[in-house]
Amino acid sequence: MKIIVLGNQARSMSNFWSVLIRHMHRAGHEVVCCAPPGDPGSEAALAAQGARMLHYPLDRKGLNPLRDLRTTGALLRLFKDEKPDLLFTSTIKPVIYGCIAARVARVPHVYATITGLGYAFEADSFFKKCVNRLSALLYRTALAGAEGIFFQNDDDIAIFRQSGILGARARILKARGTGVDTSRFALAPLPGLAADGSLEGPPVFLLIARLLEAKGLEEYAQAARMLKATHPRARFLLLGPAEQGLGSVSLETVRQWQAEGCIEYLGETRDVRPYVSAAHVMVLPSWREGTPTSIMEGMSMGRAAVVTDAPGCREVVREGYNGYLVPLRDPQALAAAMENFIRQPKLMAEMGANGRQMALEEFDAEKVAARILEDMRVPVLV
Known about the structure:
With 382 residues, the protein is α/β, with parallel strands linked by helices. 42% of the residues lie in helices and 15% in strands. The strands form two sheets. A seven-stranded parallel beta sheet has the order 3-2-1-4-5-6-7. Strands 10-9-8-11-12-13 form a six-stranded parallel beta sheet, with helices on both faces. The longest helix is centred in the first third of the chain and has 18 residues, at 65-82. The radius of gyration is 21 Å and the shape is globular. 48% of the residues are buried. The mean pLDDT is 93.
């Protein structure tokens, strides 16, 4: 069986779907990963999992219909040449244009994963509402030919139903995000935490996210500014790549926060583990997620979390057990939750241990991958 795994970046495909790809390969299937070119390191990592790499053109963030038409045409040619038995696709544009091309190319089995709704579904302006209507139309067209659609939280399913995207016969499937490789993201000791629960050094909070408004970066900066006034030793780190286009936060803005002394920007990295190891608490004040991978990775390494009570985020954090849920776009509430850890450092260890247990029991990537393959009815050939 030939399986094409289609995504918008080789890096995200390597980071999030490596375990699934390895499972496909071990089951005796030919796996072809398709992503835009330009990341040989991630492509080498995918090849190490047993996949062959192909490229196609994609403008991830743009709204130029001619470029998207070029993407659809390139995927159509690719599918006709490769003749896959199954397409597994994730992220917005690969789902939309991949499913449309696969339908025309008569790919026998097509599965899509909705990893988050993105900019178009924020709908807090006239322009976004127009983009939302167009996106709903494209999704409805694309997913009409899908054999199954994976969702990562119930809120996204409800929105897709309300928007008229899902037909009455749509086969809805649930997945625990991409899962987390609990052996790779192994339990790490909390730095400077004494046996009596006291903290020898400064408390360190870490937000891992692309530089986007919807990740709650402004709220994080405001909360950090408040806490610095009363807890000047506390550190508030931000790790993630810059973005361009709609909904992005400029590097100039981030550097201004850094100049104020409230945020420390660490740039981007291929391996987040050293940064998670050096932190005490993970933070993600996102407006909505599919399922937040950075929080699952932190949980797996034994880190408590502070996230918004928003779709996706509330799938991974239980209030008072492995972290705190705070109201959306509320810097004061975010600051108060983080201050709980500053005042009671022992909570870092207690909630971090609970998070590790949740990661092992509910979010382990091996279990998630096995369930996805089972739901897609992919046979074991070896």
